Amino acid sequence: MSDLSAVKALVFDVFGTVVDWRTSLITDFMWWGKQRGISADWTALVDGWRGMYMASMDDVRKHPERGYVMLDDLHRRSLEQLVEKFAIKGLTEADLDYLTKGWHRLHPWPDSVAGLTRLKSKFVISPLSNGNVALLTNMAKFAGLPWDLILSAELFEHYKPDPETYLGAARLLCLKPEEVMMVAAHNGDLAAAQKNGLKTAFVARPTEYGPLQKVDFEATGNWDIVAKDFGGIADKLGC
């Protein structure tokens, strides 16, 4: 393990690393659909929705002249396309709002809250997510995530893996990049963080995408910490 004695803050990817977005959304929408009498293939909708995630952010990145668009708005645009694609009928504006804000109501992985609480005893902890500030704040309230503050791509008007997100987090914390550790279940996120001077910790979430998972079953980079869960990261950092 690398020398991590200078690390003062841990920042976390959220979707898939801290919370189980897929199971949370499918369960939520199946229950809600029954209450509303709306029938749909909610699993296909959720998987399709996540499948549009990267492309929607890339579109913002490719068109800076249009200005930054926060993730809630990107989610809504993608949802409207999927509702049309799957021919889901009878949805009101309130229904579309409820579904969009499903991303605010995600449940944590079983080790997340206890592990974060241990890490918080020694380090500043925060999300560093593409989710917007309101989304991440509402999620923290819903899931009981004990963040010290909320760091979001929205604050920098750049989505990960743009350097502005990683370097911006260090800047707002008044820390050097090497004093900040990025924690993620995604090797690509960690590669970008490492390239910008941050320390890195990998935890595998092999069921994030359910049967559709194709990557990130294991660490593929030279990360500073590799652990099976957040408790393992806490162990290695002496929390």
Helix content: 40-55%
Beta-strand fraction estimate = 5-15%
Q: What is the average of the pLDDT values?
A: 95
Number of helices: 11
Major sheet characteristics: 6 strands, parallel
Cross-sheet strand order for the largest sheet: 3-2-1-4-5-6
What Rg do the Cα atoms give? 18 Å
Account of the protein in words:
By secondary structure, this protein is of the alpha/beta class. The protein contains 11 helices and 6 strands. The chain has a 6-stranded parallel beta sheet, sandwiched between helices. α1 packs across α2. The radius of gyration is 18 Å and the shape is globular. The two termini are 16 Å apart.
How are the SSEs placed, and which strands pair?
Elements: E1 9-12, H1 21-36, H2 42-51, H3 53-62, H4 71-85, H5 93-100, H6 112-120, E2 124-129, H7 133-143, E3 151-152, H8 153-156, H9 163-172, E4 180-184, H10 187-195, E5 199-203, E6 225-227, H11 230-236
Parallel strand pairs: 1-2, 1-4, 2-3, 4-5, 5-6
Helix pairs in contact: 1-2, 4-5, 6-11
